Amino acid sequence: MGKNYSQFIRKHVPMLLILILLVIFGFFLVFNLGKIPGLYIDETNYMNEVVSKVNYGTDIHGLSHPIYFASVWGQGQSILYSWIVIPIIKLFGFSVFLFRIPMAVLSFLTILGIILAIYFSSKDKFLAVCTTVSLVTTPWLFISSRWVLDANISPIFVMLGLVSLYGAMIYSSNRVRYVLLVVSSVLLALSAYVYIAAWIYLPFLIVAIFILSIVKKWFSIKEMLVWIFIIFLIALPLIVFAFRVNIQHIDKFSKFLFFDLPYLKSNRVSSLISFKGSILSSIKINVAEGVRQVIFGTDNLPQNSVAPYGAIFPFMIIFTFIGMFGKKSLFNENIANLRLIILVSLFSFLPGMMVIKPNYNHWNFIWFPLAILTGYGIYLSFQMINKISWSVFLAVPVIVFWFFVFNSYFGFNNQENSFNNSKGSIAETQVINDEMSKNYKHSKLYIESLPETFNIFRLVQNPISDSKYLSMQDKATRVSGGIVPAPSSSYGYLRDVTNISKASDGDLAMIYEDDLNNQGAFLSKNHDWHFVADSYFNHRKVKIFQKE
Fold it and tell me: Which of 78, 102, 315, 316 is 20–30 Å from 91 (CA)?
């Protein structure tokens, strides 16, 4: 009886624990998804591109098949997520929840794919439990899954591509191997359509995987050549785009095959280290800053992190190193090979870590590998310190994650934080827009930071075409083949508060309450302006004044 009970526990408890952890994580992943976090400016810009494509078949600059969104300042935003979310918005209409749900689902499926790959190829299912605990308690995976920064989709496709590659490696059926190998190459190629840093990362990763696969005899040279060829074929339009933007420095829209190629007025060199002076010194400082952000648990960007939890819990890093360098003999061959693939994916980003300025989004290719290796490390630690109850051992990161979610992310018990209280709000903007439409049809509304704020007003208004968008901006005409930048002083009834001297009788001004002594100081002293209402905008109290 005791032996049968022990076998039952060993066989079924790991899967039960994994299911419980995934269900809880999945619940938190979609809980209040349409409200928390608030809208970050990059996300609202992307939403406007998608709304334009859904309603008019073009992006905001009038391109029908853009290979990249030029976006509002010509800074560029990737295209892949729009291909995924546009059918959903077409079917069900736009909402913040529907816009974000594919991101959450993709992240969840990636975590699920990693866990299943480990569970079904490992003799000891406890490794899958440890990896599950690590993945579902990694703060960055949770935070980045709940809002859409286009760059953060790339690690998802890379990891899905590597899991597919691993699946191809362990299957003996030639048909299944080739199918999974093709899936792997497609996913890896698509990841390049998401993030410019992938253009630096992917060549190192692909070459390293190719060499490793041949040396370890996972695949034949023929199989790997097919794999690389498919990646190159799918990525070719993007390679052409990158060549025209970064080498030819094009300054007007162009085409390649059926793709529309924008130019980018604002390149991303500001995200790279300076190549003037001592490059080695710049690299050293850059890497040191990235390490500091990991150890101290924040990159100081409130949309990405909250101290001291970090991208990955700092106290868990010791397990990460154990997972990297722990004894290979404690794993079966397939699981050891998976760890090797993950290590290659991590170290392939070393050139990127040297030249790309660190924050949790810029270095987003390292968090999935680090989380997986941390799971390996927890498992190895349990093998070495088997006197400690494993339930207590695994409870620590779960409890810490619980505090992170409740106190620092959702802010239960009315606790305010940067995720629930400091970014854009569709609902609050809708209230202001409705008031302007109903009661102040012929008035202007002067607001702070118009170039960074107009996009959220555009989301709550009726969708407009690219030509209508152009007519509502400062410039009345478009230069042929050119990008029209975000409005700097006017957009529809909106005006930037710096031009308030041009206001007419009946016009309104909306000033943040905590900024009254700065932008709003002249209103309280000017007898032509009178306070009319309190309201909220971007989760902050505002005072509304009217000129009479």
Answer: 78
Q: Which phi-psi region, left, alpha or beta, contains residue 462 (left: φ > 0; alpha: ψ -120 to 50)? A: beta
Which pLDDT does position 435 carry in this prediction? 93
User: Which of 265, 267, 184, 249 has its CA nearest to residue 218?
Assistant: 184
Q: Let me know how long the chain is.
A: 548
Calculate the average pLDDT of the chain: 89
- Burial of residue 528 (number of CB atoms within 10 Å: 0-12, 13-18, 19+): exposed
Integer distance in angstroms from the first to the last C-alpha of the chain?
Answer: 88
* 373 neighbors 323 (Cβ within 8 angstroms): yes
Give the pLDDT mean for 477-500.
79
CA–centroid distance for 14 within its chain? 31
3-state secondary structure of 170: helix
Neighbours of 80 (CB within 10 A): 17
For residue 400, give every residue at least 6 positions away whose Cβ sits within 8 Å of its Cβ, in sequence order, or none. Answer: 137, 309, 313, 315
158: Cα separation from own chain's centroid: 13
pLDDT at 389 over 70: no
Instruction: Give the whole-angstrom CA distance, residue 52 versus residue 97.
Output: 18
Whole-model pTM: value is 0.92
**CB proximity list for 482: less than 8 A, separation 6 or greater:** 251, 252, 253
150 CB-near residues (< 8 Å, 6+ apart): 42, 46, 77, 78, 80, 81, 194, 195
Q: Which two tokens stand for residue 332?
A: 């079966």
- Dihedral, 474, 479, 484, 490 alpha carbons, nearest 10: 0
Average pLDDT of 483-497? 86
Q: pLDDT by residue (tens digit) across 449-462? A: 898 899 999 999 99
Q: What tens digit of pLDDT does each residue of 278-312 get? A: 889 999 999 999 999 999 999 999 889 988 999 99
290 φ, ψ to 5°?
A: -65, -40
What does the pLDDT read at residue 480?
A: 56
Strand partners, 69: 77
Short-list 162, 191, 165, CA closest to 178: 165
Q: How far apart are CA 138 and CA 107, in angstroms?
A: 12
